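Q: Can someone sanity-check these two? First one:
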Amino acid sequence: MDLQKDKSMITEIYNGETGGAYNGARYLAKAITSEGKPSLYSSSHEGSQFELEGRGGCLVFSSDSHVRRKDLEQQLAAITHHAWTVGHYLTGSYTAPDTRNYDGCSICVDIAGEDLDELIRTAKELSRSFAHDSLLLKDYSSGKVLCVSD
């Protein structure tokens, strides 16, 4: 995927840098984590913990999303061969540049092993499939948080 060509569909919210005074975007990056939180359901790796090995990320649907479990499972099985788990992994709240709201009710998809290009491709596919304007994406390897729209 050519990120330069698709740049208009990707808004960087947080670039992964630390330091400085309070930063809402840095707070958001820390607020998206599946660590210590229960999963609602997962891929065929049900009940087992999978290692992210520095690659992977989390995709976050807006809180007004009406994504059905079965539909999401089918889409994820069709578009990624990596292990994934779904839950409510966002604490706090955030309003994206497109005015969509994200909070503790937001459905999140944790995907292990995908690099940033694969995560963006997966986010765009899910955005298209569920008719969403955008999804938040946290890349675990760089710490970046992006708003990805189709």
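And here is the second, same format, sequence then tokens:
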Amino acid sequence: MTVKQVIDKRSRYNNIDISEELGLDWLNLFQQDLAFDGGPVDSFMYESVVKGVSYNLPDGFVSFLKAVTSDGKVLSLDAVTIERTSVKFGVDADGIDFSYVQVPPTLLSASDPLTVNIRYHDIAYLYMLAMYYDMEGEGDPEESGFAERYYQRYEFKKHQITSELQTRVIEPVGTTDVLPRRRGRTVGFKEFY
């Protein structure tokens, strides 16, 4: 979804007119708010990794997702130590593919696409409405109340989407258990009248 599409969607639901420049500013704040939970995912390949040696984190690093060695082994969290500006691995490897969430790039025009996870695109207009009513409602309790309601709705939806993205689906495991057979006992009903 592009910046223009989000602004048009917001205009469709509410008869509010804001400039594209202001919309860009608000959507940049929206993306920064979601950077940790739903920012764009990137990966970096560390070559010839030596156990215990510090390596610089990639530019724009926000949070760690996973590390996979060149032979396909996924490293446990115990094998990856992240410090302020560096990372240490607890194994030697020819290469480690380091997947991480990065800082979203700044949106510069209305044709730029949002870079946060696509599941969050539909709540961008809620964030914009909260910002609009916050800007317009200085001193007006009714519009300040609108801002608070839209922001609460945005936060609720954000946490709902984040929880859905972080929840792993566990498939049922097939078993060979056999349920016991009935012993011929039947349930009878007695007449009361």
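A (reply): Looked at the second one. The chain has two domains: 3-36+106-166, 41-102. Strands lie at 41-49, 54-56, 61-69, 80-82, 86-89, 93-102.
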